[in-house]
Amino acid sequence: MVKLTTDIVERKYSQVLTTKSLSKTKQKNELWKLTHLHMNDMFISSIGNIAIYKNLKVLYLQNNNISKIKNLHFACKLTHLYLQHNAIIKMENLESLHNLQKLYLGHNNITIIEGLKSLKKLQELHIESQKMPLGESLCIEPRSAFTLSMCLKVLNISDNKMTSLRTLTGFQELHTLNAKNNLIDNINNLTTTISTLTSLKDLSLQGNPVTSVYRYKENLIANSVLLANLDGKIVTDTCRNFMKKFKLEKYNRHTKNSIKIPLEDDITNSLHLPPAFQRSISRAIFQHPGPHLSIAFTPGSLALGNQLQILPAWKSASGIKNTKDNHVMPRPFWSNVVKDNKNKEPHSTHSYVSNKAISLTLI
């Protein structure tokens, strides 16, 4: 059990200075000027009072036994903090590190990304491979997520049993995301999140169930803005533009199919009638006020009003050449009008479509 104190720092640097044959006294008095402090692989279990080193910019504490982050309130100039391969359970006491740019916390026991709401200059967060209790996964506290969404550029959250990336929605500065070996399996949630990462260029998702989904890569490329590298493979501008056009065309096709057809067009189109007859029926049904008109199909008949009229078969007019290219030409329906001045009766109009007649009944 070793506690990080000024004595430990002086002892280590005395050994270093001895090997370099330098004056111990002179260098010891100048230790407060240190900007880089290498205390990795020292079996350190806790961080003591080292506030004398106010000029620290880079602090190496990886590969120790540290279980709690503390006593770093003095390090307002710190830009890099290395704490990977320790026994840290909670992210805390980082509020004073306003200039911190890179934070390394991989291979600890952290379950929640928290305590970062004051770190508005943080650009890189490496928190991969956390040792978690059974059934838990890494998550991001909302206040920290809000701060990180405006500054974070590199994020490594691989191997953390995560099932979704929805908490990363809107991370506008993020350009590199490593989320390998998690449990992400929903392609719709994933593409929705990726579409909001407007600066994302490098994305790694190997080892997730979602990678086996049909057209997984095509969906991600089509929903990204600047993605240039997906799972270690280059995505060209040509490929990305093609996928975007394909997505747009698919969307337009879906939208077109989902547009509701007006009732009159739906009815007349379903009858498969000649265009002129379709327009006539449409006008009769929808443009003139009056009694409702229902349309029913009666094979071989046409009903007008309450009278059922039997439609005769097509006949060729006598005296008219009724063949053309060895095909019989039927006589137009208007040629069947019988002029009888004595017995004037309403005449029905006959038309056949696909050997089926149409009955129009006034209700």
UniProtKB/TrEMBL annotation:
Keyword Lipid biosynthesis carried by entry: no
Keywords (A to Z) from UniProt: Leucine-rich repeat, Repeat
UniProt cross-references to SUPFAM superfamilies, sorted A to Z: L domain-like (SSF52058)
CDD domains: PPP1R42
Top-rank taxon, per record: Eukaryota
Keyword Endoplasmic reticulum assigned: no
Pfam families in alphabetical order: LRR_1, LRR_4
Name this protein carries in UniProt: Leucine-rich repeat protein
Species name: Cardiocondyla obscurior
